[in-house]
Amino acid sequence: MVNRSVVFGCSNVPKKGVSLHEFPVKMKEWKAWKRFVCRTRNGWNGPTNNSTICSCHFTAESFVNKMQVDMGLAKNLFLNKDAIPCVYPEGTCHSQAAGGLATPTPQPSSAMRKRQVLQVGL
Question: Where is the THAP-type domain (predicted)?
């Protein structure tokens, strides 16, 4: 069975440029990783022994050897011990907020718009 990233909206598998990382053992980091996934997957029960998050959800600073991999001197990416995923998949409300894009303003319902028009007309 091929492992995939457990983050909703991401179906990455191990391939060139993408690596999968198992949940950490330390409880503080484990909870942060779980919280990250729960923000993308409503009702997620938590990680299993096979749960992984792909390298796309980490910043470049999260890796010990990012430069070596980019230069072709190493094949596998290794996370810092305290790395926390923080890059949400494109198209989610979290990715837009993290990217600095404005969140859409909620539009009033049609009944509310009708009331506003009637009030102006009075």
Answer: 1-88
